[in-house]
Specification:
heterodimer; A: 3 strands; B: 3 helices
Chain lengths: 209, 103
């Protein structure tokens, strides 16, 4: 995560799977890099991260006396400041207009996560049926999904959501393209017709694929 | 409460067992990734959920839910890393029409 360009970006086609009749590749998404922001703004954006880390400390440490609380607050501050450049600075996972992701619509997760959980349960039951079926009726295929997002975190969310849903695994991401392995033809069709890419776009309040 | 927790634990165990059976039965590496994904997502979620229910709402059950969150973030990442490594190494996916050797 130390640069905007993954080594395979730019259409070198390194993830071509030998011998498969896959759809042709299309263009990749241009990488955006916004100008660096002031120290004060970065500090302000680090504050929520520190609060989250301190909350984590409170849950994990059962000793809530002044000494351990101070220790936790100091640790949270240090970790937040050290990891600030991973989260707040533009290149890796921030939006191109310079807003940090800590200001994104977090409340939408409350709707996205249950939707994804239902999808995971339904797909789990389907895959379990396949695995226990005497004839093992799997028909694996590889497919490409296109989804255009302005930042990496949305791509990461879509790739992780696809993998989390049983029956589909994201094998590689190259710009806008997601290389997906599906356990059955119908799992692949379901994903191609799925509203998941649009929901991820809505989750981050960005323009969709 | 104990009944709910027991049912969740048994269901979780069932999903993990079916995942293990899937790993043994499926034809190639990529398909086995799916079997692993199943047992890790729903099976582990049900087992941790069952343990949290039997524990009641305490700091310990909150920690278990945190484990659940981290597993559901780390598991797809690890699955993806394995799958991508296989693609990079040039492993051809098995298909029903091409036969057992994938060629």
């Amino acid at each position: 995560m130390n640069g905007p360009d993954p080594p395979y970006a730019g259409g070198s086609g390194r993830f071509s799977c030998p011998g498969r009749d896959m759809p042709a590749r299309v263009g990749t998404h241009p990488t955006n890099r916004s100008p660096p922001r002031s120290f004060g703004l970065r500090l302000l954006a680090t504050l929520p991260l520190g609060l989250i880390l301190f909350g984590l400390w409170l849950v994990l440490s059962p000793k809530w006396d002044p000494f351990h609380l101070t220790l936790g607050a100091l640790t949270a501050c240090v970790v937040a400041l050290l990891s600030e450049r991973l989260i707040v600075q533009p290149p890796p996972i921030a939006e191109p207009d310079g807003r940090t992701l800590l200001w994104m619509p977090w409340h939408r997760f409350a709707l996205y996560v249950p939707w994804l959980a239902v999808r995971v349960v339904v797909a789990s039951l389907q895959v379990t049926y396949l695995l226990l079926h005497p004839r093992l009726p799997v028909s694996p295929r590889v497919l490409r999904i296109r989804a255009r997002y302005p930042h990496t975190l949305a791509r990461l969310t879509l790739a992780n959501s696809i993998t989390l849903t049983p029956g589909t695994v994201t094998l590689d991401v190259d710009g806008d393209e997601f290389l997906v392995h599906a356990l059955t033809e119908s799992a692949g069709h379901d994903l191609e017709r799925s509203t998941m890419p649009d929901r991820v776009a809505w989750l981050y309040g960005v323009t969709g694929p | 409460m104990n009944v709910v927790a027991g049912v969740m634990l048994v269901l979780g165990f069932g999903f993990i067992l079916s995942g293990v059976i899937g790993i043994l039965r499926l034809p190639d590496f990529y398909c086995r990734l799916h079997a692993m994904g199943t047992c890790d997502t729903l099976g582990v979620a049900l087992m941790i959920g069952g343990l949290a229910v039997s524990e009641g709402f305490t700091l310990i059950s909150l920690k278990m839910l945190l484990v659940l969150v981290f597993v559901s973030l780390a598991n797809p990442t690890a699955t993806h890393a394995l799958g991508r490594a296989a693609v990079r190494a040039g492993l051809t996916p098995w298909t029903r029409t091409r036969g057992e050797d994938g060629q």
